[in-house]
Amino acid sequence: MARIKRGTVSRRKHNKLLAQTRGYRGTKSKLVKIAKEASLHAGQYAYHGRKLRKRNFRSLWIVRISEAVKKEDLSYSVFIDKLHKANIQLDRKILSNLIVQDPATFKQIVDKVKSVA
Fold first, then answer.
1. Three-state helix/strand/coil letters over 12-69
2. pTM reported for the whole predicted model
3. Which terminus in the chain has less CB density within 10 A, N or C?
C-alpha cells in the first residue's frame, strides 16, 4: 500500500499563511506555528476593530450635532426628541454631514424643529 504524500499541499498552505503574516515582527512572520497563531489573533483584532469603528463614528456624529445645536440654544436630547416629533427622518450621520458641508440647510432644520411644540 503506497503512502499518500502531502508535501506540496502542506507547503502551499504554509506559504499562503506566511504571505498573510508578512510584515509581522520576528518569528511571527517566519515560523509556521507562530505565524498561524499571529494570524488568528490579527483576525480577532480586525473583527473587533470593525465593531469599534461603528461605535466611534456614532459618538463623533453625536458630538458634532450636540455642539452645533448648543449654538442654537437647544440640548442634543431635546433636538433629537423634537426631530422625531416633527417627523423628520434624518439619521445622525446625515445630520453630521450637513453640519460640516451645508450649515445653512442644518440651520433650516433646527429652525423647523424649534417651531415644533
1. HHHHHHHHHCCCCCHHHHCCHHHHHHHHHHHHHHHHHHHHHHHHHHHHHHHHHHHHHH
2. 0.77
3. N
The x, y and z cell numbers of residue 65, run together, are: 450635532
Chain segment 19-70, per-residue pLDDT in tens: 999 999 999 999 999 999 999 999 999 999 999 999 999 999 999 999 999 9
The CB-based long-range contact list for 61-68 (8 Å cut-off, 24+ gap) reads 61/92, 61/93, 61/95, 61/96, 62/92, 64/96, 64/99, 64/100, 65/92, 65/95, 65/96, 65/99, 68/99, 68/103, 68/106, 68/110
Burial label for 46, CB within 10 Å (0-12, 13-18, 19+), is exposed
Q: Around Cβ 65, how many Cβ atoms within 10 Å?
A: 20
